[in-house]
Amino acid sequence: MAARTVVHLVRHGEVENPEALLYGRMPDFHLSQLGREMAIRVGEYLQSHDVTHLVSSPLERAQETMEPLAETLRQEVTLDDRVVEAANDFEGMTVGSNPKQLLNPRLWPKLVNPIQPSWGEPYEQIATRMRAAIHDARVAASGHEAVIVSHQLPVWTARLSFEGRRLWHDPRKRECALASVTSLTFAVDELLSIQYSEPAGELLARASKVPGA
After folding, report:
1. Which segments of the protein form a coiled coil according to its record (predicted)?
2. How far apart are CA 90 and CA 25, in angstroms?
3. Residue 211 near residue 14 (C-beta atoms within 8 A)
4. What are 9's strand-pairing partners?
């Protein structure tokens, strides 16, 4: 029987974002105090697993989410640009908390094709880079488990891709809460199952409701 390998896709915890910006790939956006609590919960949830390989997006909030687990396991973390947040032309704006900004005619060309989407990195491109990173993590942790800390859109897009579902979607219907864990179980390169959990679920009610990234 082929050895089973699990790749856990973790979304980072809550970010300190008082101006309600869509921060995307902008630097210097760190976890809030609540976000750090979430990171601890994720670490506690995964520390008993057979984790042998750690990967993080290079953005600060992802690395900070990984810290408690990496410290507990005493393992090095590989930074991988392929699991970074999706590029977005609205980065630095407050379109999440103030969508009326999108009524500005100069922004309309960015909205013509939500299926691609026309305002940012194509879903197909996100899926391709995420699947490549997941493949490499699976190989590195063969027969054991790997953890990748990434971001909501890349994690959700990867899941849709593995499930054979269309990649364009309603962002409000993503099953990918803050500090959630989407676990992919493989036998060699065959996907056996996808499981979803929220180790920090009881903290979510305290999280900001303003979209950031």
Report:
1. none
2. 11
3. no
4. 148, 182
Give the helix/strand (H/E) hosting 198: none
Q: Are 46 and 69 in contact (CB under 8 A)?
A: yes
Residue owning tokens 């009524």: 103
119 within 8 A of 111, measured Cβ to Cβ: yes
Taking alpha carbons only, the member of 154, 152, 90, 150 closest to residue 128 is 154
Determine the 3-state secondary structure of 6 from DSSP. Answer: strand
Q: How many CA atoms lie within 13 A of 77 on its CB side?
A: 25
The sign of the dihedral angle between the CA atoms of 169, 97, 148, 34 is: negative
> How confident is the prediction along the chain (213 residues), in pLDDT tens digits per residue?
678 999 999 999 999 999 999 999 999 999 999 999 999 999 999 999 999 999 999 999 999 999 999 999 999 999 999 999 999 999 999 988 788 888 888 889 999 999 999 999 999 999 999 999 999 999 999 999 999 999 999 999 999 999 999 999 999 999 999 999 999 999 999 999 999 999 999 999 999 876 656
Provide the residue count of the chain.
213
Residues 53 and 144: beta-carbon distance below 8 Å: yes
φ/ψ region of 164 (left if φ > 0, alpha if ψ in -120 to 50, else beta) reads left
Name the packing angle between helices 33-46 and 60-73 (round to 10°): 40
**Cα(23)–Cα(210) distance, integer angstroms:** 12
CATH no. for 4-206: 3.40.50.1240
